[in-house]
Amino acid sequence: MTAVLEAPERGREPARRKGRWLDHWDPEDPRFWESTGKRIARRNLVCSIFAENLGFSVWVLMSIVVVHLGSVGFDFGVGQIFWLLIVPNLVGAALRIPYTFAIPVFGGRGFTTFSASMLLIPCVMLAYAVSNPDTPYWFFLLTAAAMGLGGGNFSSSMANISFFFPEREKGLALGLNAAGGNLGVAVTQLTVPVAISLGTGINLAYAALMWLPLIVLAATCAWFFMDSISSARPDGVSYRLAMANRQTWVMSLLYIGTFGSFIGFSFAFPSLIGIAFDGAGGFVGVAFLGALIGTLARPVGGWLGDRLGGGRVTLAVFAGMALGTVTVVLSVATDSFPLFFATFVVLFVLAGIGNGSTYRMIPRIFVAQVGDTARGGDRDAALAAAKRQAGAVVGVAGAVGAFGGVLVNLAFSASLDRAGTLTPALLSLLALYAVCIALTWWYYLRRRFAVDRAPNLAHADI
Questions:
Q1: Could you read off the pLDDT of 25-58 as tens digits, one per residue?
Q2: Which of 56, 157, 371, 452 has CA atoms 20 to 30 A from the CA of 87?
Q3: How far apart are the first and last CA of the chain?
């Protein structure tokens, strides 16, 4: 999602009105930015990261809960367990596009307060579900669907923060916002096993109750310390143009391979440890390492992309993920849990790097499409339109990539349910990475490149 900011008068201080709406916001003006804008933008960024982090934490909460359901009296099959992982992923992916549009309509302050408060619903539902031994499976599915509310928070948070920062600092701000949110996966997988073991036995209700005060705090901070920018307007034209552009769907498929793998692995990894390897259930407590290291690797992907080219880095990532997938197949065939665990952590790292490198590619691709086809003022307008389209593609790719996590978990579920092994699912992932390698080379690294409306991509530093 992208937006058009109405041109304000340069040098003015931000004008506020009731409800913490900013009627004047001009971060591109150096005097405005240094005197006032920077402080306001950073305050909003901190609150946004906090709320988005909790969104990810609640989104993946079921990944730890399902591992312990048997310990508190719920006897669900492998297929049922994976559907409890698939449903929040599916709902979160579906919500990403409407959540992107919500910020210009409702304002960053109001919608962040609302979206953070909505996280109370799945937590209360989960606390009830695991405390009642007669809770039916359908209620657990409904609870899992409610957890998907946290998955949509990424898009609204990224759209909101993009309005506050100037172009020269937007990359860093969005990178911090994304990484801070993604860390919620590791936070959940690290802290929940500790929380539920407090006291005697397994107290699974603590997995839900521990988040309630933090959610209330995040909503309170958003309401009292965040702002809304009244000059942000939804840019439907850029969104429609982006949807009709072939490059949008190529990049969305590549993002399935990177972010889809990351979030799919994040949901499945704790369960895979216990299901695929008998006696390895005690290692669920260290499953957070994959998501943690993968999240920290995301900015590295953008940094490497800046220096080596996003296309080259992305190609290397998919080649590494293909090789890593083959290694996981060998670990399953030889029943080697150390090799399985170590290789999955490497896959998390590569997926994190790929998340950063693919997001770095998107604006370069759309600017490169403009090339030398426009001159003077027309070229400036074309470049501005290309940047707006790139912003829309970020929203589309984010939603499609999150849906990729659904496909990953569907593959794991079907493979374990029908074949009793992970091998068929892993071979499917290997085929996906092979397709991503071919697409990356064909569209962004092949020198003799010819594609409609994109004659300059082969010679651009994508």
A1: 888 889 999 998 999 999 999 999 999 999 999 9
A2: 157
A3: 21
Residue 11 lies in a domain: no
pLDDT tens column, 106-123: 889 999 999 999 999 999
Range of the domain at 100: 16-234
Cβ atoms within 10 Å, residue 177:
23
Give the C-alpha separation, 28 to 167, whole Å: 7
Distance CA 31, CA 34 (A): 5
Tell me if 44 sits within 8 A of 108, measured CB to CB.
Answer: yes
What are 233's strand-pairing partners? Answer: 4
Give the Cα separation of 139 and 324 in Å (integer).
37
DSSP secondary structure letter of residue 9: P
User: In this structure, are 266 and 218 located in the same domain?
Assistant: no
Helical packing angle, 38-59 and 108-117, nearest 10°: 20
Looking at the structure, tell me whether residues 223 and 243 fall in a common domain: no
Length of the chain: 462
pTM of the model: 0.85
Looking at the fold, whether 418 and 290 belong to one and the same domain comes out as: yes
Residue 302 CB partners (closer than 8 Å, separation 6+): 171, 175, 356, 357, 359, 360
**Residue 256 sits in the same domain as residue 189:** no
